[in-house]
Design goal:
The complex is a heterodimer of chains A (389) and B (290).
Chain A (H helix, E strand, L loop, with lengths): L2 H18 L5 E9 L6 H21 L3 E9 L4 H13 L4 E4 L3 H13 L3 E4 L15 E3 L3 H15 L3 E7 L2 H14 L5 E7 L7 H11 L3 E5 L2 H14 L5 E4 L6 H6 L8 E3 L11 H14 L5 H22 L8 H6 L2 E4 L2 E4 L13 E5 L2 E6 L16
Parallel strand pairs in A: 1-2, 1-3, 3-4, 4-5, 6-7, 6-8, 8-9
Antiparallel strand pairs in A: 10-13, 11-12, 13-14
Chain B lengths: L1 H32 L6 H19 L7 H19 L6 H24 L9 H4 L1 E4 L2 E4 H23 L1 H11 L1 H6 L4 H26 L6 H16 L4 H21 L5 H15 L13
Antiparallel strand pairs in B: 1-2
Helix pairs in contact in B: 1-6, 1-9, 1-10, 1-11, 2-3, 2-4, 2-9, 2-10, 3-9, 6-7, 6-9, 6-11, 7-9, 10-11, 10-12, 11-12
Chain lengths: 389, 290
Amino acid sequence: MTPFRIMAATLAVAATLGSTGTACAEEFTVGVQIPLTGAMARSGTGMAEGIQTAVELFNKGNARHKIKLITVDDESNPAKAVAAVEKLTSQGVVALVGGFGSNIIGPASDAANKQNLVYMTAGGVDNGLTQRGYKTFFRINNTQGYERAVTQLFEEQGVKSVSIVHSTKEATADLAKDMQKALAPKGIKVVLHPFDPAITDFKPIINKIKLQDKPEVILMSAYENDYVGIIRAAKVLKPEIKAMVGVWSLATSKMWKDFPDLMPNITGTSLLPSPVDYKQPEGKLFAETYKKLFNKDVDYLAQFGYVKAQLLFEAIARAADNGSLKKGGLADELRKTNKETLIGRVQFDVNGDNLNFRHRMGQHQDGKIVIVSPKAEATGPIVWPGLPW
Amino acid sequence: MFELILQALYSGLLVGGVYALIALGLALTFGTMRVINLAHGELVLLAAYMAYVVESRLQLNPVFAVPLAVLVACTCSALVYLLVDRIRKNRELNSLMLTFAIGIIITNAVLLIFSGDVRSTGSPFMQDAVQLGPLFSMKSELGAFVVSLVLVLALWQWLSRSWYGRAVRAVSSNRDAAKLMGINPAKTELISFIVAGALAACAGVALYSSSVVHPPLGHALTVKAFIITVLAGVGSVPGVLAAALLLGVTEAMTVTLWSSALQELVGMTLFLVVLLVLPNGLFGSAKRRG
């Protein structure tokens, strides 16, 4: 969905609310600071769609409270994200939701914290974000959740050596280092290969891995454009490995659709199998509403956007009901969250981090994403060894 | 270790070939008009998306997108020239701002039309591995390298042998003297922009075929092209190839011998060192004529 369509959909949702809202419903304005253009546009757009779906469902299910969104595109730029937060604050929003990229969420949530405004996100997993001691910052996912999922997969498959190819961006570098710390005590040999986000030719790195490291697995901590380059380089050089594993944005139906030749047997973090098969009624309702609004199937970005917005809206309603919203009580209400959501149970610690976040691992198999780890939650067997070539 | 270094040299040369292809157009307009077209990377990007359109909609190999890419990139390049030509004061500085703004407009237009998704060829033929002894590459990389060599040679010949090419050099050297010789500077500059557009089109198709493209890429391409143009020395076409190959090999060797995280840093250090030692670039003339 293009940024233009996002804006159009926002207007449509707003218009629907205007026509269906009851006279006694109290309306709360929530600010969305999110990248709809720039380097993070795809991820930001996906999250924004999930947030809009949450608004649609919340307003339908709540007679006494209505949520209105004001969306500002931060253009994937930290300075503009701060300006967006300041603009939204001046427009009287009760809280902020959104952001993508730890380097953008950092300064944006700084600005929100100065205004004592709650900032809820699912787009920044950098450890530093929750080490600032802010009472206003909340996130539903974190590096540890990704780390646990990948570590469990490696344990289940008895992996002995891993080469980690990671971007030097904050979140990806953090995850790579955390993975190294987590795997080393388990006797798994780890070699790190950091790369500058600007590079496009990965053959020299893969060749080093092939000739020097000789690992069982290549783990990629990177983004979509990097994955394509890394897997292509591996397909050309064909190192003797058992699997290629990645983290976010890899085990998605979109990647299969765009790069069907590169994806077979590639494994990545994935909360959802594809095609999506929600068991719980809430999930089914979310998928139906999302399809109705955006004419496509849900993906993990939309799901994260939906869950974070849903938790925030419910906390706003609770705070409004007990009269603490205007006295800065929203953060306390969020901290009381203990709810089973589409991404699992969410509870926040004192720093606003989700205590229970844990990912799953999905594998591309014949155009589908099969959940392969943890074994207890698997929707199908893993292909191991399994490579695209 | 020998095998590693050999592959790094080979990969560096291939990447350098693509860099040269990207930089040629910018070098031409910079050399002729002293205008740094900061929208050049976006023209390359636009051409790459034309290759995506042809592949995804018509199910054709991206190579067949060259005519469409040339048409689109040349038209845009000509429009850029027509806008730059309207600048009456302080053209070198104001054209920077103008072309930078055009670049932003093109990037956002691409984003609106094609979304922020990563695009690259799905053609197995382009991605097939080619093995030359111990050296590996994709067919598309080797193809882009050959195209780059051919275009450098063609541009060099055009500038030195053809009437229009000589006219371009004459306008570049001394606009007033060129006018006295019966050359129409505006027409000549327009031609150089159109040729730059055609070169950007070839670069875009090559990029789409051998790498990945996404909307924010244009700016990074412009920066890379600018570094190579300055490294080469303004007005030197063979210099562009040499500088691009040098940069490509330096980057690949950095990855192999040190760390890939240092690749861009070492590339920029090379750029600064060359400028410090040779302020006119590797192949730039010591004195500017005219």
